[in-house]
Amino acid sequence: MPSLLQRKLMQIKPQEAYENTRTLTTTTNKGHYLSLRPLINPTEEQEEFPFEALFGGLSDSVIVSKIDDKTVKQDFLFGIHSNRILGLPMQSFPLPTVWKTWESGDIQETGTVTPPGLNNEGIDFVELWQPLNADVYQSKDDYRVGLTADNARSIALKIDTKEFYGIVTIVGNVVQGLLHKKENNTISALRCVVDAETLRFKKYEIKYGEALLQFPSEIPESLVVGSFIHGWEIIEV
């Protein structure tokens, strides 16, 4: 089931809860996912990389197991992660998380992250996610709370060459992309929506990095799994 989630709360225990990002996570019908977390008010020191984090992966980079009708366990391996690319601390083993859907429809994520250098003492965290309807999403100020339809547009592309590794997800109207330029270990990111008539990308909320021109700029007319568009392989339609 494709989904678009907006983060509403972050808590790193035992600190107080907060939210200082405009985080959206897109997941395609087959489980390919991207989570882009731009800071709302980055400081001068943060301007060079104005994000909490950028990460995602293909479906084989997350292990999902059902706990009950309202709860699933997800262990994330991350196919692409800004911490790894930028040389920031990051645990080398899967990140275990538990996702529980509340009666309100919101989803509580809990987990424990164990960065290097903490003598294996994990840091517990809680995140609260609100489902948005990806079919009608237009911007950070124009969206509708609710689930995305099972039959919503769900497309994934990847690139994996000597020069680049990247993923693009298109869920409903929402496009997100991450691209690692291997030569100099930089990361580029985009978030935008699809024009209903032309299928071109528009209304960019995120345009970051030196390799933005490598991203696709529209949904191709012909969508065939295994075909390529400007070096990107279509892996889900």
UniProtKB/TrEMBL annotation:
It holds the Pfam family HRI1. InterPro entries: Hri1 (IPR031818), Hri1_N_sf (IPR043047). It comes from the Eukaryota. This is Protein HRI1. It comes from Hanseniaspora opuntiae. The lineage of its organism: Eukaryota, Fungi, Dikarya, Ascomycota, Saccharomycotina.
